[in-house]
Amino acid sequence: MYKHPLSYNQIDAHGLHEVLLKFQHRNHEEIVLDFEKLASSQLLDRPVVAVSSGTAALHLALAALGIGPGDMVVVPTFSYVASVNPVLYVGAKPVWIDSEETTWNLCPELLEQALRKFNARSKRIKAIIVVHNYGVPADMAKIMRLAKAYKVPVIEDAAEAWGASIQGRPCGTVGDIGVFSFNSNKTVTAFGGGLLTTSNSKWEKRARLLSSQARLPKSHYLFEEVGYNYRMSPLVAAYGLVQLPKADQLVANRQETFSAYCQAFKHMPAISWAQPISGDGASRWLSAFRFDIPNPRKLCNELVKSGFEVRRGWNPLHTMKHLSAFPVMNSKKAESLFRQVICLPSGQGSDQCVASLIKLI
User: What's the confidence (pLDDT) of residue 183?
Assistant: First the structure.
């Protein structure tokens, strides 16, 4: 066990108990419905579908858009594998897009090249998945302009970005569909669960139907297609009801931790970090920093030996053996980020981590 975990969330047993007491002798599905209402109120009142995980939400987003075998879907290569697995679930093919230097997210210039290249052929790119890495919003203004010009829907993978904003709008509400995760290490956690949001009622209803085994609303069991067991558990929703009212403070805590690192590193030119576009706000789920030093991997190992749980930057997905055959718009930025980025403890213990880092660098 690490003395200083990467992204620790204490369990609010009292808060959970209080929520569960409110729903005694009531239909447990009301817990999920109340969670959806509260989440919607924090996402510009857009309709939401509460599901079992962020991965399930992304799968349902693709299914709602009708993405299927052989279709091409843009995916950033600098991301966790959950951003592409649902693409493979539906039989589609990823088109990898490398990162840009400012936000470390999907590069709009490379996206434009991919749209121009592949949409000139018989098979078009059918969807664009954008990931807001570490809670830093991607350059959505440029991405959305391109998406509209080529008439391609955008799915925001905001699994890491609850509380981040794009020109005053919550992350996940700028694209056509947004998906979130409430996994145990997320800033706002339900110790599981996910969420899909969209202003398109057709897609929302489609996702909701498929998430409940595609059961039709009849008094008897009736199914006309394959569905999924993706609805959120009432117990997970109950903890979500504990966390969502505290979301602003939970995000502020992560931002304060990140700012403390930045203050400590401000006179160290070898250390840099992703910057949001002007007018955007980063939630800083993880305190991720780029170390332009001879051996960042050695530094990472030394921190682990000292009791700090740290993670290197995302290993580019296009370099994985089972994912390497798909087309890639490659600038080598993601590979550089993988070599140099280290995610530091983003909750408790940041002050001790700074002291250890300064000794090691």
Answer: 97
Report the Cα 287 to chain-centroid distance in Å. Answer: 15
Say how many domains are in the chain.
1
SS (H, E, C) 285-318: CCEEEEECCCCHHHHHHHHHHCCECCEECCCCHH
Based on the residue annotation, tell me whether 266 is a catalytic residue of this protein. Answer: no
Collapse the DSSP code of 351 into the 3-class scheme (helix H, G, I; strand E, B; otherwise coil) and give the result: helix
Structure tokens at 291: 């170390």
Write the pLDDT tens digit of every residue in 302-324. Answer: 999 988 999 999 999 999 999 99
Range of the domain at 195: 1-361
Q: What is the rounded CA–CA span in Å between residue 31 and residue 238?
A: 6
End-to-end alpha-carbon separation of the chain, Å? Answer: 24
Q: Using DSSP bridges, classify how beta strands 48-51 and 194-198 pair: parallel, antiparallel or unpaired.
A: antiparallel
Q: What is the CATH number of the domain that holds 282?
A: 3.40.640.10
Say how far apart CA 167 and CA 147 lie, in whole Å: 18
The label of the residue with tokens 């794009």 reads 166
pLDDT value at position 299?
92
The pLDDT value recorded for residue 121 is 65
Is a pLDDT exceeding 80 seen at residue 120? Answer: no
Using CA atoms, how far apart are residues 342 and 338, in angstroms rounded to an integer? 8
Query: d(Cα 98, Cα 75) in Å, to the nearest integer?
Result: 9
Q: In whole numbers, what is the pLDDT of the chain averaged over residues?
A: 95
* CB-CB neighbours of 21 under 10 Å: 8
Task: Name the residue with tokens 């204490």.
Answer: 10
Closest by CA position to 290, among listed 353, 231, 337, 226: 337
Helix (H) or strand (E) holding 208: helix 201-211
Q: Pick the catalytic residue from 186, 205, 218, 305.
A: 186
CA geometry: angle 327, 78, 314, nearest 5 deg: 130
